[in-house]
Amino acid sequence: MMQTLKKIVRGISFALEGLVFAFKNDQHFRINSFLSLTGTFLSLALLEGCLSLVLAFINYSILVAELFNTAIERAVDTATLEFHPLAKAAKDVSSAAVLTTGIFALLADLIYLLPALLSAIL
């Protein structure tokens, strides 16, 4: 039981190290984290029921996509120092995942969160 608990704690420690690394070393991660977490918290604070959870999840998914993007970019950078079209494609595709997630979240926020925010402040 203690061995299992130690493995879990060690795994969480590695995950937190990855989060800190991404935050310290990737400006886009910091920007997207701010936007993602702001949308997540506003969704939970201003909306009700399932809609608040769905919109919070959509906004939070930007953060997750950006973590994957950061991991892929660092792995590609480690794999080759020379330009390679497939390396570029991997980085571009992972970046596109963040972009498309962000666009979807923005549209959802404009449709559902913006009216609730305006109602709360006006």
Automatic annotation (TrEMBL):
Database matches in InterPro entries: DAGK (IPR000829), UDPK (IPR033717)
Keyword terms: ATP-binding, Kinase, Magnesium, Membrane, Metal-binding, Nucleotide-binding, Transferase, Transmembrane, Transmembrane helix
Cofactor: Mg(2+)
Transmembrane segments: 34-58, 96-118
Pfam families to which the protein is assigned, alphabetical: DAGK_prokar
CDD domains on file: UDPK_IM_like
Keyword Transit peptide attached: no
Keyword Phosphoprotein set for record: no
Residues annotated for ATP binding in this entry: 73, 82-84, 91-92
Any one cellular-component term (Gene Ontology): membrane
GO terms for MF: ATP binding; kinase activity; metal ion binding
Gene3D superfamilies, per the entry: Diacylglycerol kinase (DAGK) domain
GO annotation (BP), single: phospholipid biosynthetic process
Binding site for substrate: 66, 95
Sites where the protein binds a divalent metal cation: 73
Active site: 66
Cofactor: how bound: Mn(2+), Zn(2+), Cd(2+) and Co(2+) support activity to lesser extents.
Name the UniProt record assigns to this protein: Undecaprenol kinase/diacylglycerol kinase (ATP)
